[in-house]
Each structure stands twice: as structure tokens, then as C-alpha cells.
Amino acid sequence: MGLFAFLKQKLAGVSNKQKDKYVVGMAKSRHHFADRLKALGARYREVDDSYFEELEQILIEADVGVTLALDIIDATKKEVRTNNITDPSAINELLVDKMFVGYAQSGSGIVNEISFKQGRPTVLLVVGVNGVGKTTTIAKLAKRYQNQGKSVLLVAGDTFRAGAVEQLGVWAKRLGVEIVTGLENGDPSSVAYDGIRQAIDKKIDLVIVDTAGRLQTKANLMAELAKMRRVISKEIEGAPDEVFLIIDATTGQNGVVQAKAFAEATGLTGIIVTKMDGTSKGGIILAIRDELGIPVRFIGLGEKMDDLTEFDLDQYLYGLCLGGE
Ligand SMILES: Nc1nc2c(ncn2[C@@H]2O[C@H](COP(=O)(O)OP(=O)(O)OP(=O)(O)O)[C@@H](O)[C@H]2O)c(=O)[nH]1
Ligand SMILES: [Mg+2]
Which carries the bigger pLDDT value, residue 152 or residue 294? Predict the structure, then answer.
């Protein structure tokens, strides 16, 4: 069975509401990627070198990363030669298959949901460059775990940007969760400390620590994150249990550069890719997996509270390649 038929069959049991999240959210990426693949297949009767060059271009423009694009093309070419395939539409399917084989192998066994610690608060630290969607994603996560019956406390660790504390405060109020704030321009580590102490006292299940956006090249700001981490681990051994990097899908390959720097400074247990709905370059997820090996745990597919969903490779593929069919 071909990959497309396989995917359709595999997702038959997934609710339309869930599938639609990917189908709607990834429309831009799909138009850019799947529609171009189809058009390419229609233009060529038989494949030749220029066909593969165009194929490579489509992959690179979908932001899967140059190294991965070349690997995928090589693997596809090999199989085309070995099996004497000449029909371009069969090759498209083969290409998509090759794109995902690597991800499926390296990504198996990953649990997306936060795993909760018993008998103490579970701590999640959220980091990333400016404006990527950290605070919004924190609100979305708070809602998700609140719905699962967990008590949540938010820590307003962005003491730097004017209005940041209020922004988180509005979400806390709307969701009805607790929030711990500090002084504007105060030390974010001391707010983190206060938050953790309160969470322990109140036996909170999940503490989510917001942080100010920072460029990964600013050494002093990266050191500040490392300090927050240390302060948290002094209060709760082993915490933070999760450190999520938020990457804006529209930033493309720079997201990979950001991830490398943040991983070095704070360690990362997961990545959330936001604004997938606003980009035509949905291949970024594959580039992240290929170059970093850090799991993408959730993706943001819109600005609303429910527009955060667990990352699922099959549904992602469906949204990227098939959803409109
Ligand atoms: N379309 C879309 N917009 C999003 C998504 N996630 C966040 N946004 C928007 O991105 C903008 C920035 O979001 P914030 O949550 O303030 O980003 P931040 O990383 O906390 O920003 P700083 O604290 O200033 O670094 C807001 O307008 C959000 O509504 C998403 O998945 N899709
Ligand atoms: Mg913020």
C-alpha cells in the first residue's frame, strides 16, 4: 500500500474535529508544498535531472533544511533507479515517504504530554526569542491541563517587557488559575523562587514559568535563564521537569539556530512550534527533528485557546500533503 492510502486508513479512526485542526491550520503549507508537487508531477511525463532539481527546490522552500532535502532526494533517486519507476506521481509519493521515514524512526516512543511528578509540583520553564508566542502558549497549556483536572500556577518571569505581567495576569484571570508576579525589572529568578515556594505550599500540580523573550546571542540573558533553572532546582530537586522552547514556524531555519543555543544554555525537553497556521513552510518540523533530535511536543495552529494540539506525525503529514483532497 502506498503511503497516502496508508495514512488515510490509519487516520480513519481519528475524529474529524481533530483532523480539521491540522487540515485547516496547515492549509498554507499544503498549498505551497502538496499543490506544487502535484503540479510538478503533471508537467513531467518522465523524470529526469531537471525534475529532481525542481523537487529539491520545493523541499528547500518548504523549509525542511538543505541537508535533509539533499538526503531525501538522494534516497528517492536511488529507489527510482532500483525499481525503474518513471511515473512522476509515484515518485511524489515515494518522496513524501522518504521525508517521514527518518522522522518516524527517530521520533518513536515520544510522549507529548507533560508527565506529572507525584507528591510535588511539576515545573515547566518556557523559553524563546521575542514574540514567538511564549505567553499565549502558556495560557493554552494551562487550559489544557486544567481541563485534565490539574491545578495550575503561572509565574510571571518576564519582568523585563512593560505590560508582560499584565498580559499573563489577564490570562490567569480568564482561566481562573493562580499567578505569582514580581517587581517590574526585578530579578526573574526571585519571582521563580516565590512561585515555586507558593506552589509547594499550596500543593499545586503544575507550575508554568514564563520568561522574557531574548535573543539567543545575548550571553548575559542566556546566563539569566541558567540561573532561573538553578534557583528552581534548589527548591525542588530534579525541577524544572520540562523546559520547552517556543519556535515561531514563520522564522524558518533560524529556529534551528535558536534551538541549538537554548539547548546549550538551559537544556530542552521539548519544542513547541507556533504559528503553523501562518506559514507556508511547514517543513520546519522535519528540519528540527533532523538537526536537533529534540521532540516537537505540541504545535500552535492559531491564536485561540484551543488552537494548541499535540504533535502527531500522521496528522501533520495528512495536513501537509492530503488534507484538501
Ligand atoms: N496565528 C497564530 N498566532 C499566534 C500563535 N501563537 C501565538 N500567536 C500570536 O503571536 C503574538 C505574540 O504572542 P506572545 O504570546 O505575546 O509572544 P511571546 O513570545 O510571549 O512574546 P514576548 O513575551 O514579547 O517575547 C500574539 O499576537 C499571539 O496571539 C499561533 O499558533 N498562531
Ligand atoms: Mg511573553
Answer: 152
